[in-house]
Amino acid sequence: MKLKSTILTACFCLQATVSQAAETDHTTDASITIMFACILAAMILCLAMEEKLHTKKSLITGCFAIVSLLAGAALDLLPFGPVLNVFGESIRIPVYIPAVDWEVIAIIVGASIFVDVTSKSGLFSWIAIKLTKTSAGDPFKLLIFYGVMTVLFSAVLNNVTAMIIIGSLTGVSLNKLGHNDKLLGFLLIEGLLTNVGGLLTLISSVPNIIVGNLAGIAFIDFFLYSAPYVFIASALTLWLGASLFGIRRLTTETEKAEAASQVSSFDENDGIAGKAVFRYSIVLFVLLILAFSLQSVIPLLDELGMGFVALMFAFIALLRFRNDVNEFYANIDWDLIFFFVTLFMVINVMEHARVLEAIGVGIVMLTELGPKAGPLALLWSSALASSVTDNIPLAAMLGKILFQLGEQTTAAHWWSVIFGSNLGGNITPIGSASTVVAVTVLHKFGIRLSFLEFVSKAFIFALAQLILATGYILVMSS
Predict the structure, then answer these.
(1) How buried is 452 (Cβ within 10 angstroms: 0-12 exposed, 13-18 middle, 19+ buried)?
(2) Could you tell me the mean pLDDT of each successive run of 10 residues in the chain, 478 residues long?
(3) 141 vs 144, 149, 439, 458, CA distance in Å?
(4) How far apart are CA 220 and CA 231, in angstroms?
(5) Fewer CB atoms < 10 Å away: N or C end of the chain?
(6) Which of 399, 473, 408, 452 is nearest to 232 (CA)?
(7) pTM of the shown model
(8) Nearest to 115 by CA among 318, 324, 398
(9) Are 455 and 424 spatial neighbours (Cβ–Cβ below 8 Å)?
């Protein structure tokens, strides 16, 4: 009951916040909404041409954040004025500060530092080599291991942390095996699986919480409905990835013998900096997983959020390297951080300009197509919309509209929004935080993957997952 109460309270608060943001201006002219929609489209186009523009994604979104904020202020769309009252004193906060989802920023910074520090202790190298030896050097088996880990970590932690941890382990394993040519396939598959794993439970992603609560879906019911899909979609993604990227099983005795001989020379203890630091990192890593898994049912952590948990463990880990903290601060990917900060600013202005509301209303109009065609149209259109916008406000908007439709809404409509808002993140590299992180990890390993290259490689996976979701919803709702 306590877990359910916590989830419901969090959901109502989030829903109220998003609804308030969406309703700040009821008189926005349609021409203004169209203008801001064009700004959003232009930003997406520039991100797609990132390589040709010879710039970084954070600079692109930063420039569009400036344009959006200036235009929003000039047209009186933004809620200026005192927004907080502390000890009876009104405080004026810049309008773009609450626009940023600082929870996501804190998770990225905290998880990145924690992984960097833990890697220095040798823990991740130890785990990666253990997994590599367990796979007997078979790349296909290793892909299965990391794929399953990605889905489970995404379900119990969060997509960003899961991708940062799994990406680091993958790099070590493939480097030891001499299969760096397969790194692109592994990391791309893992990035796509984070959004599949995010469907596993009611609290695996924020859209699940928002829509699940409005639809009245219980925690167990959510798991029982989504688990079969997650299992099948994960297997399909792994099979498809192995086929497309040439990650095959070792078949001949010669190949197996050579691989076994190679991994037998690996020593997982080689990278351990010291036994004390190693044990310290193990304890912290286990506690991190437990804290993330139980965060919603631990009162203090529930209040402070997952971002606090990530930062807390980052700073605790840094205590062992307190004289070298600047080294870890310097390794933070500021392009990634500023990309998210400025992207959140742009999306927030789009909410005030009612661009997301227009998208949401247009999508829900598809429900009139019929009891079967309506939900499926809702699935595909919400997936496309969430591939280029933040899926949290979009899911909240769609959930609110479906709730207002009352008896016209069926279970298939609700599940279409849940599946669409999660799986849509696999279509583009900006569709979800985890796919952005996956591309960033690739860049760290010297593998360049542009916006269009990501779409060209990921589209077949997203298409297969959405087709599977289409059949699954049809079968489950019949």
Answers:
(1) middle
(2) 38 40 56 91 85 84 94 89 65 83 85 84 82 87 91 81 85 86 92 91 77 83 92 96 91 83 78 79 86 80 85 90 86 86 89 84 75 85 84 77 77 90 89 83 84 91 95 84
(3) 5, 12, 23, 22
(4) 16
(5) N
(6) 473
(7) 0.76
(8) 318
(9) no
